[in-house]
């Protein structure tokens, strides 16, 4: 039973890892062409971010945190009321950008599931002496 679960988990992990790699391409497209072009000009200033945050979030790996702040403000606007006083995007006016933000949330949840599955399968294989 455990061996069948590990085989199935390995197959699922392989499929999920490949799909996450393919899923990163739309995420990078969304990051580069949507959030940087549209929201940085309006919201990436001293009114919404501190000077330290502005300095940190301009570099490569940390600008994804800024993107997550935008995504969270679009998809779940009530959670970002302190940083952005009003809604940064009206869903009825920009349904395409809202759907891209929702897609970003789904890709991140999917990536978290892949990581959890990786550790579960790795732990099971380690404790059964297969690693």
Protein architecture, described:
This protein is mostly helical. The chain has one domain. It has helices at residues 2-43, 51-56, 63-75, 95-127. Helix 1 packs antiparallel against helix 4 (95-127) and helix 3 packs across helix 4 (95-127). The protein starts with a helix and ends with a helix. The mean pLDDT is 76.
Write the layout of secondary structure elements.
Blueprint: H1 2-43, H2 51-56, H3 63-75, H4 95-127
Helix pairs in contact: 1-4, 3-4
In short:
The protein has 131 residues and is mainly alpha-helical. The protein contains four helices and no strands. The radius of gyration is 19 Å and the shape is elongated.
Task: Count all strands and give the number.
Answer: 0
- What percentage of residues falls in helices of 4 or more residues? over 70%
- Strand composition percent: under 5%
| Average pLDDT level | 76
Main β-sheet: number of strands, strand sense, barrel status? Answer: none
């Amino acid at each position: 039973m455990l061996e069948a679960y590990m085989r199935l988990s390995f197959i699922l992990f392989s499929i999920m890892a490949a799909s996450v790699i393919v899923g990163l391409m739309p995420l990078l497209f969304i990051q580069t062409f949507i959030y940087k072009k549209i929201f940085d000009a309006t919201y990436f200033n001293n009114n919404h971010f501190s000077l330290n945050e502005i300095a940190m979030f301009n570099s490569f790996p940390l600008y994804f945190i800024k993107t997550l702040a935008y995504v969270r403000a679009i998809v779940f606007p009530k959670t970002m009321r302190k940083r952005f006083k009003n809604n940064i995007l009206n869903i009825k006016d920009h349904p395409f950008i809202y759907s891209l933000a929702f897609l970003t949330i789904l890709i991140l949840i999917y990536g978290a599931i892949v990581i959890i599955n990786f550790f579960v399968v790795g732990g099971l294989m380690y404790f059964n002496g297969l690693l």
